[in-house]
C-alpha cells in the first residue's frame, strides 16, 4: 500500500476542488448559450443562402435578357432611322420609296413588339431586384446578428479562460510541496475516472462515486495507518480520511 503524509492527502482535496472547478469551466466553455445561438444562426444563414444565390442568378439573367432586348430595339430603330433619312433625302426613285415606306411600316411594328418584350423584361427585373433586396436585407441582418453573438461568445470565452488561468496559478501553489508519488497516482486516477482522482470519505460514503462502503471495507480503511493511501473499492479513487476517521496504530 502506498503511503503519503495524511496532511498531504487532505491537501489533495484542495487540488481536486480546483481541478473540478476547471472541469466545470471547460464544460461551461463548450456549452455557452452563444454557441447554441450561433449554430441556429448558421442554419438560418445556410437556408437563406440558396434563396440568395437563386435570386442573384435570376437578376443577372434578366439583366442580360434586358441588354439583348435593348440591343434588338436599338438595331430596329437604327435601321428605321437610316430608311427614313434615305426617304427624306429625295434621292430615291418612286419604286424604292414605296419599298422604303413598306419597310418603315414593318420596322415600326417590329419595334413596337420588341419594346413590349423590353418592357416585360424590365418589369420582371424590377420585381426580382426588389425580391433580391429583401433577401439580402434579411441575410445582412442575420450576418450582423451572428457577428454580435460571436462577440458575446468571444467575451464569454475570454472570461472563462481568465478564470482557468487564475485557477492554474492556485493549483500550482496547492500542489507545491505535496508528496510526488501521491500527486502522480492522483493524476493517473483522475484521467481514468473522468476528472476525479481523490474524494473525501464522508462517513460511510465515498464522495467520488456516492456509494456507501461495505462494513468490511470501512474497517480496513479505518484501521489503516494515517499515512496509508487508501482507495475506494467501488471506484478506485483515493479516499481521503477526515479528522477522526483513522484508528490505526500510528493515529494512537
Concise synopsis of the structure shown:
By secondary structure, the chain is mainly alpha-helical. The protein has helices spanning 6-30, 33-89, 94-175, 180-192, 215-223; strands spanning 198-202, 205-206, 211-212, 230-231, 238-241. Helix 1 packs antiparallel against helix 3 and helix 2 packs antiparallel against helix 3 (94-175).
Walk me through what this model shows.
The protein has helices at residues 6-30, 33-89, 94-175, 180-192, 215-223, and strands at residues 198-202, 205-206, 211-212, 230-231, 238-241. Strands 3-2-1-5-4 form a five-stranded mixed beta sheet. It folds into two domains: 6-27 and 179-246, Helix Hairpins (Orthogonal Bundle); 32-174, Orthogonal Bundle (Helix Hairpins), CATH 1.10.287.1700. Helix 2 runs antiparallel to helix 3. The mean pLDDT is 93. It is rod-shaped, with a radius of gyration of 42 Å. The two termini are 20 Å apart. A hairpin with a 6-residue loop joins strand 4 (230-231) and strand 5. 74% of the residues lie in helices and 6% in strands. It has five helices and five strands. The protein is mostly helical. Keywords: Coiled coil. Residues 15-194 form the CT398-like coiled coil hairpin domain. This is Zinc ribbon domain-containing protein.
Amino acid at each position: 500500500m502506498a503511503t503519503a503524509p495524511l496532511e498531504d492527502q487532505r491537501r489533495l482535496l484542495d487540488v481536486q476542488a480546483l481541478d473540478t472547478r476547471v472541469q466545470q469551466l471547460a464544460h461551461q466553455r463548450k456549452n455557452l448559450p452563444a454557441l447554441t445561438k450561433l449554430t441556429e444562426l448558421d442554419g438560418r444563414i445556410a437556408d437563406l443562402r440558396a434563396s440568395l444565390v437563386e435570386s442573384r442568378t435570376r437578376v443577372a439573367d434578366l439583366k442580360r435578357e434586358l441588354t439583348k432586348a435593348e440591343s434588338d430595339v436599338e438595331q430596329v430603330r437604327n435601321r428605321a432611322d437610316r430608311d427614313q433619312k434615305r426617304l427624306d433625302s429625295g434621292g430615291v426613285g418612286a419604286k424604292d420609296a414605296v419599298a422604303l415606306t413598306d419597310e418603315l411600316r414593318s420596322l415600326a411594328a417590329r419595334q413596337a413588339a420588341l419594346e413590349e418584350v423590353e418592357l416585360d423584361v424590365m418589369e420582371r427585373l424590377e420585381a426580382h431586384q426588389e425580391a433580391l433586396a429583401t433577401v439580402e436585407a434579411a441575410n445582412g441582418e442575420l450576418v450582423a446578428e451572428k457577428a454580435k453573438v460571436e462577440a458575446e461568445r468571444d467575451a464569454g470565452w475570454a472570461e472563462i479562460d481568465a478564470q482557468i488561468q487564475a485557477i492554474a496559478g492556485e493549483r500550482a501553489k496547492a500542489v507545491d510541496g505535496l508528496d510526488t508519488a501521491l500527486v502522480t497516482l492522483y493524476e493517473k486516477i483522475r484521467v481514468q475516472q473522468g476528472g476525479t482522482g481523490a474524494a473525501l470519505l464522508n462517513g460511510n460514503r465515498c464522495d467520488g462515486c456516492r456509494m456507501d462502503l461495505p462494513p468490511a471495507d470501512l474497517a480496513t480503511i479505518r484501521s489503516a495507518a494515517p499515512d496509508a493511501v487508501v482507495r475506494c473499492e467501488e471506484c478506485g479513487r483515493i479516499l481521503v480520511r477526515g479528522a477522526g476517521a483513522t484508528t490505526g496504530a500510528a493515529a494512537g
